[in-house]
Amino acid sequence: MADSENSRTLPSITRRNILSAAVISLPALAASPSLGTPFNDLAGERTDDPTLSLWRKWVTAHESYVKAHHLQWDLGTKLYGLTDGHEIEIHLPSRRATFYASTAEEIDDFLGGRPEMAEAYAAARDRLAALHIEWDEADERIGYSIAVEMEKEACDLRLKLAKTLWNTPAQSVTGAAAKLHSFIEMKTPVAAWRKGLHPALRRFDEPSWPELRSILADLKQIGGPDHG
């Protein structure tokens, strides 16, 4: 109980620091083995192509984003396991379909202004309010909303660095390959890096953009030491 109470009273900045440490400690991205390695051997210590240093910065940001996404996903799953969700079902006798409401405004749309539904309207509002209290308290304990914010910040940085990289002319085959690599990874759905995919996401088991990956492999081969 004491641990539970302490977790509720931790300041948001402390919870954010804890989550940041959790992101850093996550394991390497096993589902994206090319990250961080495809051009290191080719590029060596050269510094004359600015795209290579930009690419390395982008790789760091991209890895941070994927890890932040994993944390947000896991905390979201945990949050749903701790609560009954944040929406209610509304059954209208006059309709066969079941409606779902996650806001008071949606309840108003379904049941508001109808005297014969006054009791159902009040009950629905009470049920939704109770769900939201439960959700907010659980969210406060595990830091889900903070994780969502961290993921957004990481995503924004990744995109900013990618645009800078793409807008910088490559001065070598390796630099061009690095730009293509970042584009492919940016266009790959982030779910592709998750293990134990939900059946609906299994299509991400196959590498995306196979044609571009083939071109990338060609560029890496052409830019290799044997083709200097």
Describe this protein's structure:
With 228 residues, the protein is mainly alpha-helical. It has one domain. It has nine helices and two strands. Strands 1-2 form a two-stranded antiparallel sheet. The relative contact order is 0.16. The N terminus is likely disordered.
For the structure shown, list the relevant keywords.
228 residues; mainly alpha; two-stranded antiparallel sheet; 2 strands; 63% helix
Summarize the structure.
Residues 1-30 form the signal peptide. Keywords: Plasmid, Signal. The chain is mainly alpha-helical and 228 residues long.
| Helix run count | 9
Number of domains: 1
Main sheet attributes: strand count, strand direction, barrel closure? 2 strands, antiparallel
* Number of beta-strand segments: 2
Helix content: 55-70%
The backbone outline, from C-alpha atoms, is: elongated
SSE ordering: HHHHEEHHHHH
Weakly predicted, low-confidence segments: 1-10, 22-38, 40-45, 197-205
Average pLDDT level: 75
Rg, please? Answer: 24 Å
Strand order of the largest sheet: 1-2
How much beta, percentage-wise? under 5%
Q: Class by helix and strand content?
A: mainly alpha
- The N- to C-terminal Cα distance equals 65 Å
